[in-house]
Fold:
Amino acid sequence: MKILILSLLRIGDVIMAAPALRGLRDRYPQARIHLVVNSQFTGIAPLLPYIDRVIPFERERLQKGLGDASVPVFESYARLESFIDSLNAENYDVAINLTHNRLSAWMMSLIEAKAKTGLSFDAQGRVSFGSNWFRYLNYQVDSEGPEVFHFSDVFRFALDLDGERENTLDSALIESASGRREADPVLNETGSRNIIAVQPLTSDRKKDWGVQNFSAAIELMAKRFPEATFVVLGAPFEKEKLLPFVDRLRAKTIQARLAVVSLEGAFSLLKSSRILLTGDTSIKHLACAAGTRVVEICVGSSDPYRTGAYRHGSVIVRTRETCAPCPHSGACHRESHACAERVPAEAVALVAGEVYEGRMFQLRAIAEEYADYIDVLRVESRVSGYWAAYSVLETLTEESLARWLDLTCRKLWFMGMGSQTGGMVPLGTEVVRLSRLLRVIHPWVSAIEWRHFFADMERDLRSAEARINGFKVGLEYLKGCYEDPRRMREFVRGLIAFRDRIRHVPLMRSFKDGLDSVIEDDVSPAFTRFRRIMSLVAEIERRTEIYLRLLRGLAGQFPVPHGKKRMEKL
Amino acid sequence: MSAHNEPTPEETLKHFLELSLAQIQWRIRKHGENKFDAEMRRMRLLEELIKEQLPDENSRFATGSSR
Structure:
């Protein structure tokens, strides 16, 4: 079997896809797997030795031809044609698109493969996804807030690779001999096992916390941990900027060293580091794959919930500025880079100190102290079956509980639960994983409190269930006369009342977007509108059923001790 | 004072990108019924490559018409 995978964003996106690539290799050990990446990122190839071929896409060269007066526009066209022809000559059995942009969708439409998964345009120019997960990926880029899956998880789940490995990042990237050769001189020179790696620069100015802030945080940490050596990582083109930064640290008698290395070298260095202090960089993803905990400073367009550090025990320090995360395109609209300026260096140093020492019990106190400026998120990826980042100040409310229930419900739904064609879905496994996650986030909540919460939420869902049954009857009635505007209006009025009612029920707020789209759609033809309403009601019904089963399953995971049960009865 | 200011390199690049985009979009429009054949799909791909470079465009994510 021959598999082609497209990953046409940046290097961090390729690394985030690595667990899915590794999972594919494990599942199909005999397959030939080829990976297309932008040509400037082929440096990742030595870290992916289980990929048979990394194919460069000459994006910059094509773009140069299109914006250069001396080059005919159609030279790029000819180049593109020969590139696509070379791919099609391979006769791929499966093509998988792990990129969510229109460019990759057009490329997928040109690739001839027996099966395709991921965003693509079909012969009529209509979009196709090949999986609920890729459809979701396309929609979730618009949604704000924490009710989203990490990109790494979306890729794994979309390719049905959940549970392929206990630790999804294990062996996702493999250390290379040349990387080790690059790292050894640095490691020998430092002669220390207490390395704190630092990557102060990012690819986007908006994501930069600022070298002065990094410098201040390092000074504070150096006072607290005099045994530590700070290894400042940088790509060759960043050397000029980083040299003065490291010199200033050394002038203050801090053990600091600049390591200008390739991706391979950085990976080997990170493997020997205790922690990495960085912004939203590809090095962050590299550290996660190297097994190193990360302290991530999340400012500007960095999105902690989709691309945060995928390593258990990592911590994300996130700005509280309301404009963050801002869009990738466009410059910062504020007079100053407030989101970066208002993240205090001492707070970052304190958080990094906790992670460095491998303990977390003071994180809450630090987060409370600096709550006006930052939020501190802990990363959990071992028990929940999906990557989870939660605020250390998170209190147990129906709203916070709804986020986790919603994510698990979506996962089960996309896996086919509730559909007539759905296969075996591991409901029990997901219930156990979710209960573990809830215990990790709220360790002090008693079983009785949990059960009260679950009972309250179940009551709300039950009333929604009755309402949905009413809609089903209404739809039957509407079936023969959906072209009658008066009857359609009456039905939509019922949906509007339902939407107003669920506004105050956290667990059902996720239905709101779907309801909004059908309620506000008064331009589609009557049949299209009717069909959309039918599928929405069916979706709400299925998801409500999953919620109910989840809540009942969870109640079983929090048994009330026998003595307390008797007291409750009294 | 000179009547015409020299364009900056960015402005020149933008100008040529816009020219290329217009040329490709004209060709796509001209094809009409065959707008989704292989040639037109290649054109669409080039169109995305140009749009990526123009300011205020962000084709990182598939939104809008992909829905």
